[in-house]
Request: fold
Amino acid sequence: MQDRPPSSSSSPIQRLIEAFNRLPGIGPKSAQRLAYYILRAPADEARDLSAALVEVKERVVLCSRCQDITDQDPCRICTDASRDPAVLCVIEEPLDLRAIERTNSFHGRFHVLHGVISPSDGIGPDDLKIAELLVRLNGPDQEVREVIVATNPNLEGEATAMYLARLLGPLGIKVSRLARGLPSGADLEYADDVTLGRALEFRQSVE
Amino acid sequence: MPARIPRVTHTEAIVLSHRRLGDADRIVTFLTPHRGKVDAVAKGVLRPRSKLAGHLEPLTRVDVLLAHGRSLDIVTQAQMLDGWPGLHIDLDRLSSAMYLLEVTDRLTLDRGHGDDNLDAAPMYGLLNASLIRLARGDGTHLATRTFEMALLEISGFRPEWRHCVACDTPIDTARANWSSLAGGVVCPECQHIHPEAVAIAATVLKVLRVIQNGPYEEAARVRLNPELAAGLEAVMHALMRATTERALVSAQFISEARRAGVAAR
Reply:
């Protein structure tokens, strides 16, 4: 390891900076800092990082049932016999699954849509994993009695939830949505009319 | 001495769309009555405790304060005036409202420098009135068709349903062809100029004329059976596609939502 890093015009370090710069949320300065950190770090750390990057691209696939990202197909949640097979939670992105799992309040299975219906972004129902959901519900997951649509509480999430409710109607499955209301730590003064209205509509008695 | 440019704009606006900017910000596209379409950065709206987030969703009419930035304005305050709750209880109304937002966005130019006195009030009023009609449960077909026709007129793309677009000859509804690229009806003699023109049903053409002549209450008296409604929709969607020069995903979504409904019944 040299005391001073080589000139940034040398090819490998420049390539590394450019590679970091392509990542979301990483600007040129941050890319430079990360690249020089790697340069100064022990060789093992750099090798671990590079192996992890290669592994994630080679071994991680979409679960053929729930469409979550996984390193085994079907994924651990789909093969977990302790999960309630009668309840399915439909979510937008794999990160939403991690958020719901952190609550420890849901013990059913998941289905990841990989997006929501968003005409302004050119995304329609055919661009989502809705066909795969129908295949599941008509085939291996016929015991599902309730589908909880956990899309974000915005226009696109609402349109997707209503579309799914209409689509799943003929299957005789109960379709529900996550409750909408005020988040913890919110300030009523700044709440929008829709959120405050829903919070009043779905109020709960205090025990 | 040049007029001093105000540092902030206080205006009413309809949120047309938004897109993500970085980890917690969004660029929100507004339609305003006096500045037309305006993009502005809403900082921190993706954070759970954001005070602006709920007020800046598409399909919301807001009272907004915009601070003028070098390239984009910054949203400093927003208060929802109308969220049209009636749109959020029915998929047909919601998908039609999304279509209204998309075509408005496509047919409105971005505000350039020095366009601060742009008169977008007719377009703003039209979108607001049409969303009210959809939300209160007027027929989605009629509310959407009257919106499309008026929007094309305001944007300078008024379709011609009475006279041939090539030779100005009055057209008989019983034997009419029409072309989305030419923007109206074509007489048999001018068919060679517009070979893409196809036949249009007499009843469809008559209703298009009624809708174009207005007022809305007059058009609202027409009884639209499913076949007639489908014919009108096919013509107007083709016209909007030709005018905006791109496929409209929300138009496809309206059809897919309806198909899902048919399957449900």
In short: Residues 8-121 of chain B form a domain with the OB fold (Dihydrolipoamide Acetyltransferase, E2P) fold (CATH 2.40.50.140). Chain B has a mean pLDDT of 87. Chain B touches chain A through 39 residues (CB under 8 Å).
